[in-house]
Specification:
This protein is α/β, with parallel strands linked by helices. It has helices at about 20-35, 50-60, 95-100, 110-125, 150-160, 165, 180-190, 215-225, and strands at about 15, 35-45, 65-70, 130, 170-175.
Length: about 240
């Protein structure tokens, strides 16, 4: 009598917060390399740079995500950020020291808390215990929701706020880029085959091209230069960093 074959084990599932930028796209590639079945979540929160959502869709397809969904949240209802309030200008041509100091006006109040909450909800439905996101505490040290204490606090929250946590499951927040410089992120993404040419980082794109002058553009450009990797970004200006 022929023995019954056991079904292959189901791959571990993970929710990946995917903005369509350099960092989150690299994180998706990292999750895939670690053997996770990746389910990407992008958030349309009313950001002025909504083109990143199209970039996210392209990245998810190229990197073989199992699924990709877009959640909608109306953060412009509250404003308070240059990314959600048209009356607040996106800073341009700031010196590196200024970028690293304080909390910039591009900080969106509670954005990562909102996004992680949405990712947590989907993770419960999927039966996933892992969430990946592209926060970075080196280049964006001014963002309070990109720091290790915030990530640890959210993990503790998940243990008491979800059925999975109460029943003994443990959610893990993965932030593999947390301590990497932009140079390190570019090198890692290049090794993992991230399609940087379709990613969008710019906070204030001009007719489909990166402005080349906002904090995000300047950090991205510097990262490619320091990594010695050609930058595939289409900038609206050829102006170099000061």
């Amino acid at each position: 009598m022929a023995s019954r074959r056991r079904p292959p084990p189901r791959p571990r599932r993970a929710v990946v917060l995917l903005s369509g930028g350099l960092d989150s796209s690299t994180v998706l590639a990292v999750a895939r390399e670690r053997g996770f079945e990746t389910h990407c979540l992008s958030v349309d929160y009313g950001q002025r740079h909504r083109g990143e959502l199209l970039a996210a869709r392209r990245v998810a397809r190229v990197l073989g995500a199992a699924s990709h969904r877009v959640a909608r949240v109306n953060l412009p209802l509250f404003g308070g950020s240059a990314l959600t309030d048209g009356a607040i200008a996106v800073p341009k041509d700031r010196a590196e020291a200024d970028i690293a100091a304080g909390i910039p006006v591009t900080y969106v109040p509670a954005r990562n808390t909102v996004m992680l909450s949405l990712a947590l909800a989907w993770a419960e439905v999927l039966g996933a215990s892992d969430i990946f996101l592209g926060v970075n505490a080196v280049d964006y040290s001014g963002y309070p929701d990109c720091r290790p204490p915030f990530l640890r606090a959210f993990e503790r929250l998940a243990r008491v706020a979800t059925r999975a946590g109460v029943e003994g499951g443990r959610l893990r927040i993965h932030a593999p880029l947390l301590r990497l410089s932009k140079r390190g992120i570019v090198r890692l993404g290049t090794r993992l085959g991230v399609p940087f040419g379709v990613t969008q980082t710019c906070y204030d794109p001009i007719r489909g091209r990166a402005c080349g002058r906002c904090d995000a553009c300047r950090l991205r450009r510097r990262g490619f230069e320091e990594a010695g990797v050609p930058d595939p970004t289409r900038y609206s200006t050829s102006r170099k960093e000061k």
